[in-house]
Write a structure and sequence with these properties.
Strand order of the largest sheet of chain B: 3-2-1-4-5
Number of helices of chain A: 3
CATH architecture of the domain at 65-158 in chain A: 2-Layer Sandwich
Strand order of the largest sheet of chain A: 6-5-4-7-10
Order of helices and strands of chain A: EEHEEEEHEHEEE
Oligomer: heterodimer
Largest sheet of chain B: 5 strands, mixed
Shape of chain A: elongated
Order of helices and strands of chain B: HEEEHEHE
Distance between the termini of chain A: 75 Å
Strand content of chain A: 25-35%
Number of helices of chain B: 3
Number of strands of chain B: 5
Strand content of chain B: 15-25%
Helix content of chain B: 25-40%
């Protein structure tokens, strides 16, 4: 790659620029980026505000929607219940939970939806993935048209932890 | 390349492409994932979206398992553990081992003046818990944080693939 021209005795002659070190560095950079690249799904979060000693219903004037999650001894979900109504333990149960919470709120974005609180009461052994699914079902849904989340409950809290079952 | 008889190779297109590649990798590389830990396989949530505003400081707690395979290739997992500052703290020792560490963190917050009017830490606690760990262990961790003076929590979940 000869770019510069130098006026010599016999006219202009090219001054070669040695590109080798630059290309070496550039390839090192590419190899570094290729090796460190990890394609992974984005993370999202559920924000919860839990002051110490806050009792049930102390923060909000409205009573919380109570969701009970019972576990089998191996940590899988036995049943979800909202109030006294049992919803089952499969994917359909989470869809039903979503519908039930939405029916209590009225519609996404309702005026008082910011005051509504959901209290999750899970067994100690229950695998955390079921709690995340319950939080998802309680807080909103994905709009089928836009693909954007519609949140209808902002506040989530946990009931005091239950005692571990004796093995 | 220098001699007048040699064939000159035009390096410009190659350098163009190489710089394009470097730019691509620099843009795609996710420095936010520095907090992520391979040992924590988080639950997936449709509503999980990255926060619009990231707090300047956060206390990240990772709860997961040490997984390995036996001779038959079956996965065995030990734990759950809290992975904190390079230490592996088993769930039954959260109170005994992690609480003093957290108290020290809170003292640092206090010295920095990073407390709100109620004397609670402004720093949110980010909990990255494995999908298979017991909910009670996560709740126990939250309780310890509450007792130490933290009251803002952010529970992490993964976005579904391709969203």
């Amino acid at each position: 790659m000869a770019i510069k021209l130098k006026k010599g005795s016999g006219g202009f002659e090219k001054i070669p620029i040695d590109m080798t070190p630059m290309i070496d560095c550039v390839f090192q950079l590419i190899i570094f980026f290729m090796l460190t690249l990890k394609i992974r799904a984005n993370e999202g979060d559920f924000n919860i505000n839990m002051p110490l000693g806050q009792g049930v219903g102390q923060q909000s004037e409205l009573p919380p929607i109570k969701v009970r999650l019972e576990a089998n001894p191996d940590g899988t979900l036995r049943t979800i219940a909202i109030g006294r109504q049992s919803l089952g333990n499969d994917q359909r149960a989470f869809a039903l939970l979503n519908q039930e919470v939405l029916s209590l709120v009225g519609r996404p974005g309702a005026a008082f939806s910011k005051d509504i609180e959901v209290e999750l009461d899970a067994d100690y052994e229950l695998q955390y993935q079921y709690v995340v699914s319950a939080m998802t079902a309680c807080t909103g849904k994905v709009d089928e048209k836009t693909g954007q989340p519609l949140r209808f409950v902002e506040k989530i809290k946990f009931a005091p932890p239950r005692a571990k079952r004796a093995k | 390349m220098a001699s007048s008889n040699s064939i000159e190779i035009d390096m410009t297109p190659m350098i163009d492409i190489v710089f394009q590649l470097i730019t691509f990798f620099m843009v795609v590389i996710n420095f936010d994932a520095a907090n992520s830990d391979e040992r924590v396989r988080m639950a997936v949530s449709d509503l999980a979206r990255p926060p619009k505003m990231k707090p300047p400081v956060e206390l990240v707690l990772q709860v997961g398992f040490e997984r390995h395979r036996d001779a038959a290739g079956k996965e065995i997992k030990d734990g759950p553990f809290l992975f904190y500052n390079g230490d592996l703290i088993p769930a039954p020792s959260f109170e005994k081992v992690f609480r003093p560490m957290l108290d020290r963190e809170f003292q640092i917050e206090k010295i920095k003046g990073n407390l709100d009017g109620d004397g609670k830490a402004k720093t949110p606690v980010v909990i990255r818990a494995d999908a298979e760990c017991a909910t009670g262990d996560v709740q126990k961790l939250i309780q310890i944080c509450q007792q130490a003076g933290y009251e803002k929590f952010s529970l992490k979940a993964m976005q579904p693939e391709g969203k």
